[in-house]
What does this fold into?
Amino acid sequence: MATFSPGDLLILPRNSHISVISALVLSGALPKYIIPHILNDCGHCCWSLHLRSVLKQIPGISVLDNSSFPASPAVDPLRLTVGFWNLGLSGSEADKILYKDYDVICEIFRNRSITYALNLGTCREHVHRLVLGIKRLAATYGSIPKAEKKVVNVHAPFDDVIMSMIPRDAFFASKRKVAIRESIGEVAGEIICPYPPGVPILIPGEVVTENIVDYLLLVTSKGAEVNGASDSSLSSIVVCGKLAAGKEHP
It folds into this structure.
């Protein structure tokens, strides 16, 4: 990002990590969002499919997949999110055991789950250690399975992104705080990023929509933590002002 100048065009997925989005904002580049196509017959995707299939068969283990988000355009097949709540374990507790006993390193853990990243370096040995470790956790901490709560789905927040200002311009613009419901139709002045998954739902310069507000209120009600927002409770957010009537994004 250090090579970009304000106004340069940058092609990237909208669901990029917060570190990428933060660099975009500071560089002044103008984003053009794409939905990348991932070849499901590549080696690391095959490992991902294999892992999902095996882990779903282990009692007490939950695996996040496309069925959890029917309105989402795609779920990254190279990110594997495993839930341990039916074992009575938090993501932190499970991660400590898997790291110490099986040398398995996660991408991120949350209150009830762990996310693993698969890549070109993923091999049979890595997959074997992960499966062996999770099977041992299930055997050691297994309890009577509880009914798994389905994820309540809202309209995918990236389907209708409206860019009103270049992110850098919005970041340095004059701002004010408004109640979150009153922010609908206004231009975001801050990055709002719930964890999991660590992907900003709003970045400076984007128009706040009802779908985005609904999504943010839903995930925070489910225990997600919010980074970037000046008000972590999301009772209010920082905006730049209303989108002018009839104005189109650049």
